[in-house]
Amino acid sequence: MTTTRTIATTILALLMAPRLAAAAPDAKWLGDDLPLQLPVKTPQDIGFKSAAERQYLIFNLMAGGKLAYQRGDYATAIDNWQTLLRMPGLDPQVERAVTPFLEDARAKAGQPGHPAPHVEPAVPAEPEAPVATPEEKPADAHAHAGAPHHGVTVTGLVSGGGQIGPGGTVIWLRRLDGPTPRPAPAQNQIINQRDKTFLPHVLPVPVGTAVQFRNDDRIYHNVFSIAKPNEFDAGIRATGATYTKTFTHPGVVELLCNIHSTMSAYVLVVDSPYYAKAQASGAFTVHGVPPGRYDLTAWHEAASTVTHKTIAVGAEGARDVAVAVGGDKRPSPFVPDKYGHKRQPQLGY
Asked: What's 254's DSSP letter?
């Protein structure tokens, strides 16, 4: 049993033992607000609380979905388990345990044939057929909707990423022997706040894309970023409220919540139509790439620097591209509020 699994088991045992002893078979778990009474006074406290709340969230979604499944509430079971399987870095043992029940719940709810939701195919926007001045015309973004691909495919495997692993690495290509087409904005991009978690944790989008932030919790959130020049402040938003931000500059945008310091995520704004996000295994696929020479850039949240690699894409594409990312990034000494200041201890929830 890994160290992570041992820590998770210990935390959950301590949290649940007193309540499970008296709980009825159909009792609710501790609730959706994750009210863990853990004080936050130092950066180390924030890390501990974040780890504990993650394990608590995994348990709540897993077990709450099973209780709903057992009483025939398949819609709730599906919703819980889909949320669970979208979590980055999820233990494969949890995935293997949940997936058969999720598929059965979908079948019983009349939703057969859906793929497991944790696999987020990294399908980029695609360029149109070559024209005389590609830099003046946006690349075709219909690849996200399943349109036929133009160009070839680049596949590979990311390694590294420290304790997080290679999943969530964002890869994008810029042409070295010609102009890189200006990407068209992606459509229907949404980041949910659910159970005090941003879903997805990493979202790559082309420059000019509007991203909607939606509060699916029963509590208030205040999503913000101080990453210039893409900074924004969504303000305090209640359940069901949305806020839309259009990202007009390439770069890394770290997302935080001004109410809950344990929440974090990233929007990676790229200036290329050729991009992908690596799956948990590190595997990635970039579609619709014209043959040529490219600078491959790879970003990972645990790496202190981005990785660059020159690749040649032939008429048959490029396969088995090996990309290594670091895991050496040191955590910030504090989680800032939306003004960039160190949070007060009482606001460290």
From this structure: E
Q: Residue 66: how many CB atoms within 10 A of its CB?
A: 16
Question: Would the pLDDT of 148 be above 50?
Answer: no
Contact 243, 226 (CB under 8 A): no
Q: Residue 115 — pLDDT band, cuts 50, 70, 90?
A: very low
Q: For residue 82, what is the DSSP state?
A: H
Among candidate residues 142, 109, 107, the one with its CA nearest the CA of residue 127? 142
Across the chain, what does the average pLDDT equal?
80
**What's the confidence (pLDDT) of residue 323?**
98
The first and second tokens of residue 161, run together, are: 């990423």
Instruction: Identify the three-state secondary structure at position 45.
Output: helix
Instruction: For residue 95, count other CB atoms closer than 10 A to its CB.
Output: 17
Which tens digit of pLDDT belongs to each residue from 64-86? 889 889 999 888 888 788 878 87
How far is the CA of 46 from the CAs of 74, 302, 346, in angstroms? 35, 17, 12
Looking up tokens 């390439």, which residue turns up? 250
Domains, the chain, with CATH or none: 3-108 (no CATH), 134-325 (2.60.40.420)
Distant-in-sequence, close-in-space partners of 250: CB < 8 Å, separation ≥ 6: 207, 269, 270, 271
The residue assigned the tokens 């790229």 is 270
Cβ atoms of 183 and 270 within 8 Å: the answer is yes
| 320 in Cβ contact with 273 (< 8 Å) | no
Q: Which helix (H) or strand (E) holds 251?
A: strand 251-257
Q: What whole-number distance in Å separates Cα of residue 215 and Cα of residue 175? A: 38
Q: How confident is the model at residue 342 (pLDDT cuts 50, 70, 90)?
A: confident
Both tokens of 54, joined, read 């993650």
Three-state secondary structure call for residue 57? helix
Indicate whether 95 pLDDT > 50.
Answer: yes
Q: Residue 112 corresponds to which tokens in the numbers above?
A: 């057969």
Residue 319's pLDDT is what? 96
Q: Of how many residues is the chain composed?
A: 349
* Structural element, H or E, at residue 197: strand 197-199
